[in-house]
Design the sequence.
């Protein structure tokens, strides 16, 4: 009897070891991708507005990341940094083979060109003084270690007209939400989070960023809420949100911001709560939200990067 119990215990221990060696298991599954033809209709709607597609000035873009801090397929900052450097800056910015973050590489012949008139550099942890001084747009995807000195860096940058985009973990302020960070980003952090299906509702369909995008979009990702301290609606415009429990244990839900714009005159900030899973960055609609937010923050036509949305994207062919 004792030998049998010992044997079972040993087998269980071996199974646990094998499981740990096989890598982290993600319970979530990638959502079904949208049809290419549906995305192309959104792109066509923007192309019909040439007056809003101004002449493209040279742009210096900094992609800010840090070391990976989650399981496989989650918070993969280095992979995002390398592959979006290719997407935006072409072969001159990155030697990545493709721009998708999830699954097998999906190369595209247009990727080495990047976006016209764009130069991409990268930063780890925090931009250098030179990058703060020369960048037109800084895009952060990682937790940001805010200090009074770093808040001052960002404020100086925005006062000179720079654009700032914060993605997912960059919107979560550690160790706790901060009114000082809210003065820079429009949102100073959050209190709760949830993994699972996100039903994204567009709230400002007339905003140029939202042109043609679905009124409702289903994603599989992670939400943060509520914005803390509460947002200032006179300066923060929520473009899309999803419904979450107002308080733990309550059945009532309220719309929580997932995408927002913030005027820090003359600088601009675009906030994006979503982006936990790598596959989210391959969804062409999410890409359009993010690419248009980036272009808007850089004070360019929001459709400047639209043509990048389908490169290496996850789409269903008909």
Sequence:
């Amino acid at each position: 009897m004792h030998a049998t119990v010992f044997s079972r215990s040993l087998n269980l221990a071996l199974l646990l070891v094998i499981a740990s060696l096989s890598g982290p298991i993600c319970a979530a599954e990638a959502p079904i991708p949208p049809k290419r033809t549906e995305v192309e209709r959104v792109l066509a709607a923007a192309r019909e507005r040439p007056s809003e597609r101004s002449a493209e000035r040279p742009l210096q873009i900094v992609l800010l990341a840090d070391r990976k801090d989650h399981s496989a397929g989650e918070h993969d900052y280095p992979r995002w940094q390398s592959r979006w450097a290719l997407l935006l800056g072409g072969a001159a910015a990155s030697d990545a083979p493709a721009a998708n973050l999830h699954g097998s590489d999906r190369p595209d012949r247009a990727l080495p060109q990047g976006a016209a008139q764009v130069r991409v550099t990268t930063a780890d942890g925090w931009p250098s003084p030179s990058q703060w001084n020369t960048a037109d747009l800084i895009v952060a995807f990682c937790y940001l270690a805010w200090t009074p000195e770093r808040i001052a860096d960002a404020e100086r940058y925005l006062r000179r007209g720079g654009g700032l985009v914060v993605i997912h973990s960059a919107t979560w302020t550690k160790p706790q939400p901060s009114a000082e960070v809210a003065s820079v980003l429009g949102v100073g952090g959050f209190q709760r989070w949830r993994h699972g299906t996100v039903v994204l509702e567009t709230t400002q369909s007339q905003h140029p960023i939202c042109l043609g995008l679905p009124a409702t979009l289903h994603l599989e990702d992670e939400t943060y809420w509520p914005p803390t301290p509460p947002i200032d609606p006179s300066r923060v415009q929520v473009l899309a949100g999803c419904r979450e429990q107002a308080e733990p244990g309550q059945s009532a839900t309220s719309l929580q911001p997932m995408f927002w714009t913030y005027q820090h005159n003359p600088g601009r900030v675009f906030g994006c709560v979503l982006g936990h899973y790598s596959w989210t960055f391959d969804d062409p609609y999410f890409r359009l939200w993010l690419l248009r937010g980036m272009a808007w923050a850089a004070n360019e036509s929001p459709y400047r990067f639209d043509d990048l949305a389908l490169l290496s994207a996850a789409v269903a062919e008909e």
